[in-house]
Amino acid sequence: MLRFALKRLGSLVISLIVASLVIFSCIEVVPGDPASFMLGINAQPDTIAALREELGLNSSLPERYFSWISGMLTGDLGTSYTYRSPVSEIVAERLVISLPLATYALSLTVLIAFPVGVLAATRRGSVADISVMGATQLGVAIPNFWFAMLMVLVFAINLRWFSAGGFPGWDAGFFAAMKALTLPAIALALPQASILARVMRSSLLDTLSEDYIRTARAKGLSKRQALWRHALRNALIPVLTIIGLQFSFLLAGAIIIENVFFLPGLGRLVFQAISQRDLIVVESVVMLLVFAVIVVNFLVDLAYAWVDPRLRSRV
Amino acid sequence: MTDTIFSTAFRSRNIVLGVSLTAIFALASLVSLIWTPYDVTQFEIANKLQTPSATHWFGTDHFGRDILSMIMVGAQTSIAVAIVAVVIGMGLGVPLGLAAAARCGSLLDEIIMRGNDLVFAFPSLLIAIMITAVFGPSALNAIIAIGIFNIPVFARLTRGAALSLWTRDYILSARVSGKGATRISIEHILPNVMNLLIVQGTIQFSLGILAEAALSYVGLGVQPPTPSWGRMLADSQTLISLAPHMALFPGFAIILTVLGLNLAGDGLRDLLDPRLRRVGR
Fold first, then answer.
1. Complex ipTM, two decimals?
2. CB atoms within 10 A of CB B24
3. Which domains does chain B have, with CATH numbers?
4. What are the residues of chain B with a beta carbon less than 8 Å away from any beta carbon of chain A?
5. How far apart are the first and last CA of chain A?
6. Topology of A92-314 in CATH?
7. pTM of the entire structure?
């Protein structure tokens, strides 16, 4: 297990290094001079020179890369050009919205997908199974931002149960804040729950046809007992991996959904930074998101190998 | 042989429904090249925000443009972006996958597979954001962003399928007869993974349509005045309580196209390779 963990840790570090190089070259090398890019075409030469000085653009590329990375490692993400405050502070403010939103959406995904997937698998071919398969087919096809807009129309504008957007802040109380995140979380969860329910169903169907389930039934366990004691646990293994992968889709999806609901999270920050040409913010936030995705997938791999020892030999 | 395949295909509800839905939108986009009910570049403010009627089947938008015509022209954008992105993904991913399988375990294989992992770590939207942050939003950049994400999908699929083929007897006999790895990959491996690639192509096509809609919706894709389904949804957002039809019809267009492609993909998979039926999600 330790050997497996170390090997995966090695490839995690390599992935992070390559990812940082890609992001660095995209943001700091490709546009030519980042300072004149950020200031636009009408900027005075001395303003550009001042910004170059401020951004440390006068040092060599490797020097800039290492100072960016070492800053990242010590929690210094640079200073935003438009906000004039440390990026780490801005990110922290936004993270208290984006992280709960992603967690909320992931919980909804699991809460919907598990029972639905189990129901469909245990009643294979029944009306319930066919409706689940049909509904999930539709759930995958619906763009979640469109679904979000319709929910705003129905639940915020017509029924007035929720506000159409914005975030009251956690100071307004836990329930007020969670209420503001509810419609966005449902919108995010819809396609993911559809995918996960299908994975749950097919994975459970696979395990239910295994010999050990037949043995369990032969030894006198009822269908329900065999399902709960043996099948579900094994069926969960592929489901876990998909949940890990879904985290990255939730992060990316949140970027769009935050814009539908005007939630001041990381996603909106990225879009504002792009329109203000604040490359420092774009660079740091993209790197943070990629870091989160790579680390989560690493943890899922570890959990996976821990649950299923057969996988440790296969790296 | 072809006769039986077609008659089986016709009996599969998924394929019939999926292909018909896809065909409707493909046809609409082709027709819109030469004819649309109204000119989508013409603003008629006097006619703005009309609800669906006999003259404007899907109503009009805030500039008085006919929504049916815009959906037809928007189909061009969606389909073109998604197809080119699939072509990029296949064009680069399949050769990479074939090469990785032919040299399985080599440094080349390792580099290709780790590179794939890396692209997977960037959700496609993040790639799009980086590209647009630097090069500015456009349809071309949307295509590149979606296409890059398709490469590892096809590379991984091709490698996996090709690996199992390399152990077959007929490949061995081809090697004995003196054919090189490249020739074997092209002449023997590729035709045998084609089915899988077509099925995956349909699925990536539908994901591409969703991705294009999302990018255009947040303003990172096709730029106005070119109509696109995502942009139409973005325009409708502030007017949704006043003119819900502006949001409904482009949304239906996206859903039906994606649903059609997914159903066709599922049906094709069952038809071309019954062994894969259980793996389907």
1. 0.84
2. 15
3. 2-272 (1.10.3720.10)
4. 114, 117-118, 121-126, 129-134, 206, 210, 213-214, 217-218, 233, 236-237, 240-241, 244, 247, 251, 254-256, 258-259, 262-263, 278-281
5. 11
6. MetI-like fold (1.10.3720)
7. 0.85
